[in-house]
Amino acid sequence: MTAAASRPLPRSFAGRPLVVTADDELLDELLRLLAAAGAEPEVATGGPALRRAHRSAPLVLVGADALAARALRALPRRPGLVVVSAGELPAAEWAGAVEVGAERVAVLPADEAWLLSRAVTAVRSPVERGWLVAVAGCCGGAGASTVAAALALAAAPGALLVDADPWGGGLDLLLGAEHADGVRWSELTGLRGRVAGDALLAALPETSGVHVLAASRAEPAPIPDEALVAVVDASRAAGCPVVVDLPRPGGPGDPAASAVLADADLALLVVPARLRAATAARLLVEAPGSPWSAAQLVVRPVPGGLSRGDVAEVVGRPVLAEVPFDRSAVARGERGQPPAVSARAPLGGLARRVLAGLPVR
């Protein structure tokens, strides 16, 4: 069994590590390793103590000698379970490791360093992964950037607003942050793989409690998919909620949309309440393989246009919210002031309704 990518443990796993073994020598080794990781474990081999600790422990270390125990096999599978063996595990016991759902078989002493690192990770206070919302307009001028900015401001402090349209003039203008110190996309297009989220966020301009990564007006250039994914993943791993303002979708194969939407908690299409706009949105969500197929709609009413229900019927997707009329929005934007998202502000109400629709983590 090879090492699997560590799955994030539910935040309810807040107890002490659990050791399940009746082998005294192995128990001494595991207690020593866990002490080095700063953890004081529970030891149980059966009964209510085993069931309780198995449910709440951030890490379960099962000795190879305990794999045949009926009490262990009766428990439900869970993440964060490692089988530990002093020496190579016999073939017959590998089946037992698979049956209990082990993420890895650690063989001592060869895997001691890995096991120590795994224990340190498990007992460290977990950081809840930030949510991700992707926003785009089904056509030009739909108001998607305003909606994205309002969502980020409503999630502040500590949210990140990502401008994924290199030709949109720079989303920092909408927040009045065009003169704020910090890096823009032109300095980050080479990012790949794992990035330190805290360091990234500290390097970005910040205004009204929102970090903003905007396109550069001096050096506009395409944003590589790998860089966009690296920024989003790093920020979410640091616990930061992320709103990505995607450019107008270019079709089902749009790589920027596919890269972000694959991991988004919520995808929003902003649709003006006009027949042509709603039809364009329907073509987008119904196209084979479209990353927008599961999107929900935010409708922007227009005088004499379609009703909310009409838009939902034409597009074939549910309407999550409507963009309310805000007489101050245009003037604030032209003066370089961010959208108002207070409790009484129309866009504030919209943002809170949308964020309330996020899946419970």
Automatic annotation (TrEMBL):
InterPro entries noted in UniProt: P-loop_NTPase (IPR027417), ParA/MinD_ATPase (IPR050625), Rv3660c (IPR022521), Rv3660c_N (IPR059050)
Lineage: superkingdom: Bacteria
Boundaries of every Rv3660c-like CheY-like N-terminal domain copy: 20-127
One Pfam family it belongs to: Rv3660c_N
Protein name: CpaE-like family protein
